[in-house]
Automatic annotation (TrEMBL):
Belongs to the class-III pyridoxal-phosphate-dependent aminotransferase family. It comes from Calditerrivibrio nitroreducens (strain DSM 19672 / NBRC 101217 / Yu37-1). Keywords: Aminotransferase, Pyridoxal phosphate, Transferase. GO terms for molecular function: pyridoxal phosphate binding; transaminase activity. The keyword Transferase applies. This is Aminotransferase class-III. The lineage of its organism: Bacteria, Pseudomonadati, Deferribacterota, Deferribacteres, Deferribacterales. It comes from the Bacteria. Gene3D superfamilies: Aspartate Aminotransferase, domain 1 (3.90.1150.10), Type I PLP-dependent aspartate aminotransferase-like (Major domain) (3.40.640.10). The keyword Lipid metabolism does not apply.
Amino acid sequence: MSNIRGFRIQHDSLTEKQRIFIDDFSKRYTEKTKKSKNYISSNRYHLCDWMNSLGFKLSLKEMLYPIISHSSEGAYFTDIDGNRYIDIAMGYGVCFHGHKPKFVYDAIKERLERGFELGPQTVESGEAAYLIHHLTGVDRVTFCGTGSEAVMFALRIARGFTRKKKIVIFANSFHGTFDGVLGKMAEDITIPVSPGTTEGMVEDLVVLEYGSDAALDYIRKNADGLAAVMAEPVQTRNPSLRPVEFLKEIRKLADEKGFLLIFDETVTGFRVHYGGIQKLFDIKADIVIYGKALGGGMPIAAVCGRDDVMKIVDGGYYSFGDETYPDPYVIFFAGTYYKHPLSIVATLASLKEIKRNGNHLQEYTNNLTSILVEKLNNLFKQKSVPIVVHSFSSFFRFITVDPYPFVSDPIELEILFLLMILKGVYTWERRICYLSTQHTIQDVEDIVKIVDESIDEMRSGGFSFTF
């Protein structure tokens, strides 16, 4: 039976003191966020929303519902009950510039007044593509709607260009929801991870251990059959793993054997450095995927890459007034909302802000995150809390350690996050966290204080949560 969202449909083994604590905590949490809970309850039937049940645990059922937002600005949002939160979810990493940045707001407002027609193209699309080229060094850019779509097109481009089938990805990476990457290894074959994804969708997918010698050996031995190796260079699920030399070796093998190297920088692009991981690690990929921070809060993604590779999208460069023409060997590529005028002007505004600031925005958020992570890890060490915060750039994750192994999904970690929400620090259900350019050192101090208070309160309720 598949359980890809980690549902726990049996009660945890709890002491009487722990049950009393959870009951009292649930009442306080529900009272503070009752409009959110009522909204979820009244809309559960007709609004089929996967977020409602993500990470379900029967013992915490009465507190497991999304918080419903009313408004946001900077590093904060306010829910429909009027509670204000320091946001460390930041739109799953989308809101690098914070919520409602003025330069994005103004750009969207101006475009709204002019109209947001589809069909005719916009001048801003070319400007945005040029800025991506200028900042990251990619040759050419094509836009689509989401990171998942960008992954789908990147793989289609790679297979079309190389005329080969096999794709290598790595365990613990996240590449969105396209069926073609929803696989895992079972001995020597790849099987789907989700009901509804067929074996045929993943039969040409190979999932290897990221950063391992075994992965390099496989790639070397099977390179002739590979269309591409795709990596999330720093995995959001494991941000402490940064195998730079491993990636450089794959780059070398790709050059020697003719497969393509794809970087999925949906999260890292423009967040870690204005030039992304390519600039930071000094490794040039053949295809790069950007999203999240790219759009300034609006939905957009980009597939970028070498001129000779990307020409399979549009036939390549040709001129008017002569006999040149596009190459007819092109992939199928289409999308109604790609280059939507509102998303494009938001993207252009975001890119202009990044270009104007050089790398100062990234340096600020990276430094602020380092301070926060150091303070949290010192706190956990001082209080003997079995958590280590792993981070890279301005994203981070709370990882439990023995005797509360992370893979066991300890209830204590979920209680900690719910207590943080109760006290005014919000993160989403997957608990991958981000800071933005609008967070401050005071926010860092407040977050640490709330985490400290939450640990004490949990322990007072009978959860020792210690080494």
